[in-house]
Write a structure and sequence with these properties.
35% of the residues lie in helices and 28% in strands. The chain is α/β, with parallel strands linked by helices.
Length: 251
């Protein structure tokens, strides 16, 4: 059985790590490179860096950030935010990123997924999707959760896989920052809908929540932010807890 992964996420705004609740009310959480280095030492399996305002403000994720991260980390990291072309990806991968994450640009132009998979390989392409439950179903949102669409979550992840996405990073906007647990039911449905790995994001508040998302939610990885940023959960202790609960993790 493949080991389940623990992935701290660092949302970047104006060069700083920030965290909010339900995508609003952001507060400062520290320097992203320093936090990333700490998580690397603590046993995180991977890291995700997302420039959460890059698309909204029509900016590009800075390649300089990727280079700085690569110099200080020894574990794989994904970087995303404002990526909309082959050139964007080429710069970031050349700067040291192991994978890139695309979100709004892929929804607006799904062919971007095909192009990236064809030119760089599916293993480098993470399809991030932010979704909210409303009117009886889960719908995809764009621009950091600011713009609603009529695209159903399950339809979108299946299309993304068919176009060449190598991994799905699903964030429940309803659960984000609440610390009440992951959206396990829909995460399981996403996991069952695709054959590629699924990273669950949104709602982690304690160690039990990770156990739940790996079992009930059928996720391949659990991603969290504030509980790691503000020292509420230690990654080593979390992995020891999961191992005791017979979840396969890398210690």
């Amino acid at each position: 059985m493949l080991a389940k992964r623990i992935i701290p996420c660092l949302d970047i705004k104006d060069g700083r790590t920030v965290k909010g609740v339900n995508f609003v009310g952001l507060r400062d959480a520290g320097d992203p490179v320093e936090l990333g280095a700490r998580y690397s030492e603590e046993g995180a399996d991977e890291l995700v860096f997302l420039d959460i305002t890059a698309t909204h403000e029509k900016r590009k994720t800075l390649a300089a950030l990727a280079r700085d991260i690569a110099r200080h980390l020894s574990i794989p990291f994904t970087i995303g935010g404002g990526i909309s072309s082959l050139e964007d990806v080429d710069v970031l991968l050349s700067s040291g990123a192991d994978k890139i994450s695309i979100n709004s640009a892929a929804v607006r132009r799904p062919g971007l997924i095909d192009e990236l998979a064809r030119n760089f390989g599916s293993q480098f392409v993470v399809l991030a999707t932010d979704a909210r439950f409303a009117d009886g179903d889960w719908y995809v949102y764009l621009n950091g959760g600011r713009i609603a669409t009529d695209i159903r979550l399950l339809d979108w992840v299946k299309e993304a896989e068919s176009r060449g996405a190598g991994e799905i990073l699903f964030t429940s906007m309803n659960h984000d920052g609440t610390k009440n647990g992951f959206a396990n039911e829909i995460t399981a449905r996403v996991s069952e809908a695709v054959a590629i790995p699924v990273i669950a994001s949104g709602g982690a508040g304690n160690m039990q929540h990770f156990y739940d998302v790996f079992t009930t939610g059928k996720a391949d990885a659990g991603l969290a932010a504030s509980i790691f940023h503000f020292h509420e959960i230690d990654i080593r202790e979390l992995k020891a807890y999961l191992r005791e609960k017979e979840i396969t993790v890398r210690l």
